[in-house]
Design brief:
By secondary structure, the protein is α/β, with parallel strands linked by helices. It has eleven helices and ten strands.
């Protein structure tokens, strides 16, 4: 496994991490990620450790906290082997500073309890706070760091302007942005991260499985509770998957699978520290980890892949 330093944090993280949204399953919701069990999720985290993967990314909202509970159960006795990143959704539509502070403090305590740990390595805002409360939000995060409840803090957003505003108010250390072959909306955030030495974690590198190759040229057969059902099964989506099948040229004459190619596209992009593809199972985790054992994409391959992706209708 390859490791990179997560910006100014000094934390050494595996370049392929584990996105743990799927591990929240359907807990507390009528829709979510199907095909998961806590037993398999825990086994997947244990396998990650064996493979040298040390980065786990979750959020309080994944399965209404269930993803954090699964991680807490899986990491007992081996907590120091992982860098755990989770997220808090700040208040986005209320200028009251007291409530803004209380939201962060109470959410942090809740995450610590569910994760069964005494500290969170990377605590990320899961949305952009109400602008007038940004100073108190950043001060609160700094207080939590001083108290030892969190080690570093950052934000999950593609909005480079918001990142810049928060940087001016405190010691923001990481950014989590969306970036993949088809959807490069986080590119500006990545460039800013590189300039400011922020650790950059990439969510959605497989576009919720759309770039895995599994659905190319087909109409996906998804459970009616799968959160991707409407997005992936419309007529527009079918046309998109048909066009995306042209990306399979990235696998021809190589040892790459489509998963490997999609992850390498992101890993070899400027400013990226690590990718955090979701993993429902040990098999998916092993597939993701295999991206470290294949050749990078050439400049010509990257250009052609982007041209194909830019020609699709989308979802």
């Amino acid at each position: 496994m390859e490791y990179r330093i997560l910006g100014k944090t000094g934390l050494k993280v595996s370049t392929v991490g584990v996105g743990c949204w799927q591990m929240g399953g359907l807990a507390g919701s009528d829709s979510g990620w199907t095909g998961t069990t806590d037993e398999e999720s825990i086994a997947t985290i244990h396998l990650a450790r064996e493979l040298g993967i040390n980065l786990l990314d979750t959020a309080e909202g994944y399965g209404q906290g269930h993803s954090e509970e699964v991680i807490g159960a899986a990491t007992q006795g081996i907590r120091d082997d992982f860098v755990i990143a989770t997220k808090v959704r700040p208040i986005t539509d209320d200028p009251d500073e007291g409530r803004a502070r209380q939201r962060i403090v109470e959410a942090c305590d809740g995450s610590l309890k569910r994760l069964r740990t005494d500290r969170i390595d990377v605590y990320q805002l899961h949305a952009i706070p109400e602008e007038s409360t940004m100073p108190v939000v950043m001060d609160t995060l700094a207080e939590l760091k001083t108290q030892g409840k969190i080690r570093w803090f950052g934000i999950s957003t593609d909005d480079a302007d918001a990142i810049q505003k928060l940087l001016a108010l405190g010691d923001l250390a990481t950014v989590q942005a969306r970036f993949n072959i088809r959807d490069r909306v986080g590119e500006a955030a990545l460039l800013l991260s590189k300039k400011e030495n922020l650790g950059a974690l990439i969510r959605g590198p497989l576009d919720s499985g759309a770039l895995s190759g599994k659905y190319f040229g087909t109409r996906p057969d998804l459970d009616n509770k799968d959160r991707r059902l409407d997005r992936f099964t419309s007529e527009k989506a079918v046309r998109t998957f048909e066009k995306l099948s042209e990306l399979l040229f990235l696998t021809q004459g190589t040892s790459r699978t489509m998963v490997h190619a999609a992850l390498r596209f992101v890993l070899d992009s400027a400013g990226v520290t690590a990718v955090i593809p979701g993993a429902k199972s040990r098999a998916q985790l092993e597939s993701n980890a295999g991206a470290m054992n294949v050749s990078p994409l050439s400049d010509e391959e990257r250009t052609r892949a982007m041209e194909i992706a830019d020609s699709v209708e989308g979802f």
